[in-house]
Amino acid sequence: MKVKSTLVAMGLVAAIAITGCTSGNSSSTSESGAALTIAKPDGAIATESNNPWIGESSGMKLGYLNAILEPLGIVNLVSPSDEVRPWLASEITWTDDYRAVTLVARDGVTWNDGEDFTAEDIEFTFTMFTTKPELDTAALGITDVTRDGDSVTVTFAGSMFSKQDKVLHKQILPKHIWESVEDPATFANPNPVGTGPYVLSQFDTQSVELTARDDYWGGKLAVPTLYYVSYNDNTALTTALANGDADWAQAFIPNVKSAYLDKDPENNVYWAAAGLAIDTMFVNTQTKPFNDVAFRKAMNLVIDRTQYADIAREGSVPVVSSVTGLPTPVGDPFISAEYKGETYKVDADAAKSLLKDAGYTWAGKSLVDPSGAPVTFALSVPQGWNDYVTGISLIADAAKSLGVEATVDTPDSDTWWEAKGTGDFQAILHWTDTGATPYDLYSNMMDGRWLKPLGESADFNFGRFDSPKATAALNEYTNAADDATRGAALETVQKIFVDEVPAMPVGTRPFIGAFNTRSYVGWPGEDNPYAPADPTQPTAVLILTELEAAN
């Protein structure tokens, strides 16, 4: 999600100083193969936390927990119609109404501390979501978990038709470790036990080292060692990728051909459409100026989505054009009849007319709200997320057409992440979850299940949009037993979205991956789109098991 800028100073936080922590084309080799360095441009590595339920934990932000913990099955979010690949569950059987799923625990799997993996671990993990509902961030609504031998049946209050990936991508925890944890929502999990192919062997603020298991149930691994590092910004990360200091990254590379691909024929990118997901400007609907729907509508009218796609994303993604916010063409079948063919258009005159009708005036060229105060706001994204920095700069320029002074704020990643969750912002760029239906996209922006008071950390709906009607329609959509009911609920959701502007879509969101094939082949790509090439996804474990030595 990061791109170019000269606004952010180039620098390396995780200058790989640990002995042996170098890239796959270097001397960091063993009898079994080269190490693989996996990087992000998020600044200094945070204090160690290996909790899979905390989005800002080091294990989740850098993605290394995806090599330690494993899901039940793998849904290909690049191509959601593909058959589900069983993983920790050797068999996955849904009921016809998708209100229950039976999972058979894979035989022969062990945790990395030597204990056997069993159906009790699956039962424990899903039961935990019922006893600790704050962990159920996907709002699965589990009503019952039962075990019969090696089979576990999980029953839900509603249909999981639109949430199959959210169920199956849940990473399973070891009961024998977590059953004694007093508060799983805050547990740092310093010695993570998982069924995955790698174990955590070293953590410090420069690099996180993982070592391949020699007893992994999935067989022998090609890559013996993984290093997870973090650079100050996308410019530094691009340089590292280009010269081989980093091998794999979730990175949007500016001028990708000249800056990266032309540097070495082994350098590759795979930017796949992320299903129904978008980049969005979340606005704080609880505070000025975005607590006024008239101002939200006006700002929505001056954001130039084509400019965002061309400049911030350098033409690599389609423009978000539908007023429903759904990306095209993948979202076209879900657009309700009322909004078919209705597209975003930049119209400053219409925006000013709307503001005038709502009681706004101008002092010279400066917009003044109905209370007599000048209208200003700040847009915030982390330093180093250069595509987002470019994006908010474009939006700030657009706000000037209304007479609004919008400033650009680029704090460090940890500061921004905390402010985002607690609502201590006026406007930010962020992304929505992806899925095979529009549910996650709209839920992330509008759903009351995410709603938290200002000051308490929210997992989504960062703008605190409070609409019981939208929440009810979203619940009806995801729990519907037939297409007609589902379609009617979606019409309601889209009308609220268009009329009340809870957030402002700015661009299509891709799955982003950059990697080289100097030491390893078997990566996903256009010719073999078996998974997103994103190391922060729970499906990254599949890629790690598919890699093979290049020679």
Automatic annotation (TrEMBL):
Gene3D superfamilies: Dipeptide-binding Protein, Domain 1, Dipeptide-binding Protein, Domain 3, Periplasmic binding protein-like II. Keywords: Signal, Transport. It holds the Pfam family SBP_bac_5. GO terms for biological process: peptide transport. Residues 1-19 form the signal peptide. The keyword Signal applies. Residues 83-444 form the Solute-binding protein family domain. The keyword Transport applies. One of its GO terms (molecular function) is peptide transmembrane transporter activity. InterPro entries: SBP_5, SBP_5_dom. Transmembrane segments: none annotated. It comes from the Bacteria. Belongs to the bacterial solute-binding protein 5 family. This is ABC transporter substrate-binding protein. It comes from Cryobacterium fucosi.
